[in-house]
Amino acid sequence: MRAQLDLSGVAYDDPWDDPDVVVVYLPKFDEYGLPVRDGGTSMVVIGHCPWCGARLPESRRDAWFDDIERLGLDPWEDEIPADYHTDAWWASSLDPAAFADSSRDYVEPGKVISPA
């Protein structure tokens, strides 16, 4: 999956327009998806790697909206704190020791498409 998300050789200014980019990753929600080529940043969320079939992490989208609601914010009307535009809102709570022996191939945020 890491090799498919590496955008170092992308020829387009906007990777969402690049037909060679077939999987995107949104760190904010920890989601992987297949981009919808409609001129926007829509994607079809996937639960398994299309190449090896490995289970991908559960989406954190619902938790994101729950946290925003807990903060008393409206995600469509209010200004959202900076940490909630990246994976900082959930990644800081992870225990690195829990993943020491993990086989999960983590994706580096600088190597993926993010609409932010």
Please write out the topology:
Blueprint: H1 2-5, E1 24-26, E2 31-35, E3 43-46, H2 61-70, H3 88-91
Antiparallel strand pairs: 1-2, 2-3
Helix-strand sequence:
HEEEHH
User: Can you count the beta strands?
Assistant: 3
Structural class: alpha+beta
- The end-to-end span amounts to 21 Å
Residue stretches low in confidence (pLDDT < 50, at least 5 long) are 102-116
The overall pLDDT, averaged over residues, is: 77
Oligomer: single chain
Major beta sheet, strand line-up: 1-2-3
Features:
116 residues; alpha+beta; globular
Structure description:
This protein is α+β, with helices and mostly antiparallel strands and 116 residues long. The protein has one domain. The chain is built from three helices and three strands; from the N terminus they run H-E-E-E-H-H. The protein has a three-stranded antiparallel beta sheet with strand order 1-2-3, with no helix packed on it. The radius of gyration is 15 Å and the shape is globular. The two termini are 21 Å apart.
Q: Would you summarize the structure shown here?
A:
The protein starts with a helix and ends in a 25-residue tail after the last helix.
